[in-house]
Amino acid sequence: MWKRRPRLPPAFRWLYPGMRVKRYALVAFLGVVLFGLGLGELLPPLGLKPPWAALALLLGGLLAVLGVRSMNRSMLSAFTEPEEVPEKVYVRRRLERGPKVVAFGGGTGLSRVLRGLKEHTANATAIVAVTDDGGSTGRLRLSFGLPAVGDLVDCLSALSDHPGLSRLLAHRFARGEMAGHTFGNLLLVTLNEVAGDFAEAILEANAILNLRGQVLPATPEAVHLRARFQDGAEVVGEVAIRQRGGRIREVFLEPEPREVMPEALEAIRRADLLVLGPGSLYTSVIPSFLPPRLKEALARAKAPLVYVVNLMTEPGETDGYTAYEHYKAVAFHLGRRPEIVLVHTAPIPEEVLERYAEEGRHPVAFDPRPFALDGVRVLTGDFREEGPLAQHDPEKVVRALLGLV
């Protein structure tokens, strides 16, 4: 009959059979004994030195080195290929010395910045807007009463150290009751069901996915976005706001969240650099810092604050907005002016402009004069990724951002 293995104290669990450690530890121990015997014969200053002393010293040292090396390889083989360990250790240690960067936003813009950041630092923190109510995320919010999970999943995927994880988390089911849902969204919902607490579920996801940094929600509470337009009309919900269109005067979280994660406040306090965007101005960037305690923390933070302006306007949200109007909207809602604004000013290929114009999207116009009057530093240049789309290049943007630290 099968018997349960007796539970040993942690220090003695290396004695379990099949560990492939004890044999190499024994070899190393014998090497140390031989080395000690040889060294003991060579130390006395008088008399002839036995001829075997040097041999024992050499053999003992060799056995000790081989034993320790084999023991290390045996233990490491349970987690990865031993040959890959030096490179992984070097990369991890180098990244751990990187700057502490806190980036706010959501959607594609923030995840692209995070992909660039993780190549330079393991100290990136993403604080993500949780007000999306469309697609798979919207359906899950209705069913489970959660904050939006879609943008959180994109950012978790961007900061993960596992090369195949992005494809797995982004997999969208095409049939059955799960049709339209992504695996990543369902993973966060499952973790929340198990933990019984959304904040705890996010921390579990951070640990499971082996991130180079951390991803946190702007608030673990289920909140919605309310927009007040210039004509006085008010609309609730991101999808409804985009569909309504028109000039937005102000956006709010409803209900106003009381809770933010302490990890987010600590990251802001310790930050070397604070980054807003890129991303949808009123439905990604601004909602990511609207919880009052986050705004208070940002107001007290000593790190420089950078706002990355979108390359293109967004229909129904920022039609006709200039770079300065983007910046003023951020400063108005935050109660603190970004000290630095990053703006793409290089030409965009005509074929790309024509494709975006069909969707009602146009390049964000830039005039340096109002920024100069406000005393705001502007970083201009080519920050677009080569290809058929008008989107930021992670490496170009991150190189400019880290140049500020």
Automatic annotation (TrEMBL):
The chain crosses the membrane at residues 50-68. GO terms for molecular function: LPPG:FO 2-phospho-L-lactate transferase activity. Pfam families: CofD. Its main location: cytoplasm. Keywords: Cytoplasm, Membrane, Transmembrane, Transmembrane helix. One of its GO terms (cellular component) is cytoplasm. Required for morphogenesis under gluconeogenic growth conditions. This is Putative gluconeogenesis factor. It comes from Thermus arciformis.
